Amino acid sequence: MRKVHSKVSAALDGLLFDGMTIMAGGFGLCGIPEALIYAIRDSGVKDLTVISNNAGVDGIGLGVLLETRQIRKMVSSYVGENKLFAQQYLSGELELEFNPQGTLAERIRAGGAGVPAFYTKTGVGTIIADGKDVREFDGESYVMERGLFADLSIVHAFKGDTEGNLVYRKTARNFNPIMATAARITVAEVEHLVDAGNIDPDQVHTPGIFVKRIVHVPNPTKHIEQRTTRPRIIAASEVN
């Protein structure tokens, strides 16, 4: 089966439907599958549940799907950089399932491993535990969390081969690898596409068995979420 598609829209052809659940990889604006997000926007699919650590920022990443009101619910951890997200949530337009960041990561990992639920100490005694099963193990209380599994995962990789083996770069390795395992179908956009056999097996982060479709997206825009600078100190030796 040929996994590589020449266009982003073709990589998603036949996969999208109203009311579906989508996992979107990345951390902040690092490693986000931006080209696939734009293709989802252009498809017009709506009433989406999106599982993502954050919701991008206004006008970038998942922020574009918030602008078009295509997202009905977010399952997230950190959403503080998106003003539109806050407006929609506070007005009741957007549903939010809030998670501690480690819990969100473990829920995704568990879903990919076929684990339907697990117990964790994180959130015990807080509103995070409201309505959830709390049990005692070895004298300590733990709250039950459900594993997460999606209809579709969209991920961004630094390098991929034609069989779908993926390599992520630095911070992009946070949520992308676990999300690639936790969906019925995973679609990957890759910056560098190589022939099968050109990636050292020891360097593969996501085996190709988890990836059904690939699209080559060279030279993506590398957004900076918050640019912080300071004046340059000029040494005396540089004067004149």
TrEMBL record:
Keyword Transcription: no
PROSITE patterns: COA_TRANSF_1
Domain of life: Bacteria
Record's keyword terms, sorted: Transferase
Gene3D superfamilies found in the cross-reference section: Glutaconate Coenzyme A-transferase (3.40.1080.10)
SMART domains: CoA_trans
GO MF terms held by the record: CoA-transferase activity
Pfam families (alphabetical): CoA_trans (PF01144)
Entry keyword Nucleus: no
Matches recorded under SUPFAM superfamilies: NagB/RpiA/CoA transferase-like
Sequence intervals crossing the membrane: none
Family (UniProt): Belongs to the 3-oxoacid CoA-transferase subunit A family.
Descriptive protein name: Succinyl-CoA--3-ketoacid-CoA transferase
Organism for this UniProt entry: Phyllobacterium brassicacearum
